[in-house]
Specification:
The chain is mostly helical and 143 residues long. It contains four helices and no strands. Helices cover 82% and strands 0% of the residues. The protein starts with a helix and ends in a 9-residue tail after the last helix.
Amino acid sequence: MKITRYVLGVAGAGLIGYGLLGLPTKLGPPQLIGLLIWLAVAVLLHDGVMVPVSTLAGAGLTRVGSRLRPASAAVLRGALMTGAVVTLIAGVLLKAQSVARNTSALEGDYAANLLWFWAILVTLAATLIYGLERGGSGRGERR
């Protein structure tokens, strides 16, 4: 197992090096500067926004989930993660739709579809959690 990790680590580092060495030959200076700025902003958004928000959400879920059975807590976490990912994708589509120059591109009503998605997701998750909490062999199974 240790050798496999080492080999995969060396292979990954080699591929990263190969990609970084190839960038100057494929991109011009303005594109390289734009790429570096994009990467810096991505790191700032990740470490400055996403990590604190997900940490707070995780703490809140742990507090709420501590009163639920493990299966119910897993359903809650899974539903919220699914909702977050779909919302992120729909946000990108909504932005693309607002700047699209071609009216036939991105025709869907993404905002309404996102609202329907959340309504269905919340309903299904709540129904499943309710069933899991009410079912089973007694209330002593909670963590």
